[in-house]
Amino acid sequence: MSEGSSSLGRMLALLDAYTHERYAWTVEDLAAHFGFTPSSTYRYVKELCQAGLLIRLPRGRYVIGARIVELEALIRETDPVTRASQPILRELAQETGCHVLLSNVYGEHLLNVAHEPGVEQLELTYLRGKSLPWFRGAPSLSVLAFWPRARVRRLFEQLHPDADEQAWDAMWAKLKAIRKAGYVISRAGLDPDVIGYGVPVMLEDDVIGTISLVCSQQRGEFLNGAALGAVLQQKSRELSGRLQQAD
Fold first, then answer.
1. Which residue intervals of 103-224 are DSSP H helices?
2. What CATH number labels 79-245?
3. Mean pLDDT, to the nearest integer, of 13-40?
């Protein structure tokens, strides 16, 4: 992000630097990471601390602040997507025995926001609160398949700058096939020995997220993928209908 962007946009962009892999930053490191001046970065960090979004630790390190916890609790109680999806996710888990995940799109990010456990004890990498990678795994593929081609290509080139035209053509052909089917089955896309089934959640022709079923590949051998895809599509339409009627 350049210094020509709005001050508010630059300040909020600092929060994007925080990940599970790197959760503590100094002002100097943030300034270098984003290409901001140290004085501007210090001002942004100070304002984020005053808002409770960041907190200062010894040796000039800053981490996510307690205000985020308060906002997360507020989302759990008031977010219309999460509230409308809870009974649907619960029904899917009971009917299929699979883990059920709801992921929401925001900007160019895909974030798991709800998880209903299944009957298996699975070590899943991407649970509630973790951003999902693009172009692999059922959640992201089911979203990308329903995005406009230009948007998908822009993201593909951003994440795979060394990929050639053949690689792009292969990916787009894969996404078109997923869109035609209406659902995706992904084997070991995110975790080894795990299979995922995903469909997009649409609202007024926009993809706002995805519902995914997850189970072991061993369990998946006894499941009908096409039938699960049809069930997921029906539940996705049900969730879209609930959201359209939400206050």
1. 138-144, 149-159, 165-181, 217-220
2. 3.30.450.40
3. 91
